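hey so u asked for the seq, here:
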Amino acid sequence: MGVFALIVLGIIVLVVLIGLSSAIRIINEYERGVLFRLGRLMTLKGPGLRLIIPFGIDRLVKIDLRTVTLEVPPQEVITLDNVTIKVNAVIYFLVVDPNNAVTKVANFINATSQIAQTTLRSVLGQSSLDELLANREKINTRLQKIIDEQTEPWGIKVSTVEIKDVELPQTMQRAMAKQAEAEREKRAKIIHAEGEFEAAQKLTDAAGVIATQPSALQLRYLQTLTEIGVERNTVIVFPVPIDLVQQLIDIRQGKGSGPTTPAKT
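ran it, structure tokens below
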């Protein structure tokens, strides 16, 4: 009889210990506990030591309130201009309403991932490749707004959506490289032409100044000769100004055609 009582007492103690272990719950500071009693949503439990009714009467679901970093797997997208690309993205979101995150959706992380993949293909399919490459910030904002609106009933707040990488086909990469090279050549030719025009304009202005003072051209010749003469072992072909020769010719003719004095007899 005593042995049977000890066995019963041991069973009771074991059941009590099991019940206590299942009744004690510790909720961290970054978590919240959603309590169900007999399948009915009761209340939200804050951080700390919490006691619940064991043996399946109460069920406590912990929800992490920290920001979740979700990487969207690469998606094959056909853009508006019929270019096939692969795009992956990253989403930052957090739970703002734990009750809805548990009761409105079965798995909020998986559901958010599926919504992100669908929205990514839809939005990028409505944009051209040039818009995707040039206006990435605008597309990120649009993605964030659409995904946030769809996940709001689940108690999810999407804070940021960033497109990480855009993988282009090899043929498109070569075409874009040729386009960029042609654009750079175009800019180089334009800059060269503008330089030539400015140089011609300056030479025209200088010629106008020299034309008003003929002696300025001779001084310019002499200055050029001085600059060239700095280098040794240089053969210099120096043009003689026609104005200088003309002045010498005029002086000689003036002396030869002067008045003659009649001889005295």
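The domain at 68-173 is CATH 3.30.479.30 (Tetrahydropterin Synthase; Chain A). Confidence is low (pLDDT under 50) at residues 260-265.
lmk if thats what u needed
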